[in-house]
Specification:
Blueprint: H1 2-32, E1 36-37, H2 38-45, H3 49-63, E2 70-75, E3 78-83, H4 88-95, H5 105-117, E4 120-121, H6 122-129, H7 134-142, E5 146-151, E6 159-163, H8 165-170, H9 182-198
Antiparallel strand pairs: 1-3, 2-3, 4-6, 5-6
C-alpha cells in the first residue's frame, strides 16, 4: 500500500514538473514573439533536446483544444506561438490594420538580400549579413513572403530561397520588375549624401 502511494506521488510530481516546463516555454514564446529553437529552449529550461521535444509534444496536444485562441507551430525544430487563423477577423478589428506584423530589422535585411540575389542559400545570406539568418528566414517563410525554390547542385545540396507573390502584395508592388535596381538605390543614396553635405 505504501509503495503504491509513493508511486502515485512520484507520478503527480512528474506531471507537475512537466506542467511547469510547459508554462515556462509558453512564456518564452509569448515574450519573444519570434520563433525559438528547441535547443535554445532546452538550454534555458535546462533539459536536453529529447526531453524538450517530449514537453513540446505535450504542448501541441494541449493547443489542439478548439477552445484555445492560439496554436503552436513547430517546424525544423523551431517553435512559435500564433493566433488561430479563424480568429484573424477579430484580431484585425482590434488592431484596425492588417494582421501582418511589421518585419524586424533582421527580417528586412534578409528579405532585401533574397529579393536582389535570388535564388540564394542561407549560407550565402549569412555571409552577406555577417550573422546567422535562421530566425529571420523562418519568419519570412511563415509569412509566405519567401519560399524554398529548389536546391543548389553542390555537396550537401543546400536549400535555395526566393520571393513569392505575397512579397509583391506585401510591399504594394505591381511586379518584381517594379523593384528599383541596386544601382538606382545607390545613386539616390549618393545624391542624398551630397545634399546633406551641402547643407
Amino acid at each position: 500500500m505504501n509503495n503504491k502511494r509513493r508511486i502515485d506521488q512520484t507520478e503527480i510530481a512528474e506531471v507537475s514538473k512537466i506542467d511547469t516546463y510547459k508554462s515556462i516555454i509558453e512564456s518564452l514564446l509569448f515574450v519573444t514573439g519570434e520563433p525559438l529553437s528547441i535547443r535554445e529552449i532546452g538550454t534555458i529550461i535546462r533539459c536536453n533536446e529529447r526531453e524538450t521535444l517530449e514537453i513540446v509534444k505535450e504542448m501541441e496536444k494541449d493547443y489542439k483544444n478548439r477552445s484555445r485562441g492560439i496554436k503552436l507551430i513547430s517546424s525544423n525544430k523551431m517553435l512559435q506561438l500564433v493566433t488561430k487563423p479563424n480568429n484573424s477577423e477579430y484580431v484585425q478589428r482590434l488592431l484596425k490594420t492588417n494582421v501582418r506584423q511589421s518585419l524586424s530589422q533582421a527580417a528586412l535585411e534578409t528579405l532585401s538580400i533574397i529579393a536582389y540575389k535570388q535564388p540564394i542559400t542561407r549560407v550565402a545570406i549569412d555571409e552577406i549579413r555577417g550573422v546567422k539568418s535562421d530566425r529571420a528566414i523562418y519568419t519570412l517563410l511563415e509569412k509566405s513572403i519567401i519560399k524554398e525554390c529548389g536546391r543548389l547542385e553542390v555537396p550537401g545540396r543546400p536549400i535555395l530561397y526566393s520571393t513569392t507573390e505575397e512579397f509583391i502584395k506585401y510591399f504594394g508592388l505591381d511586379s518584381m520588375e517594379s523593384i528599383p535596381s541596386l544601382e538606382d538605390i545607390l545613386n539616390n543614396f549618393g545624391e542624398m549624401s551630397k545634399n546633406l553635405k551641402s547643407e
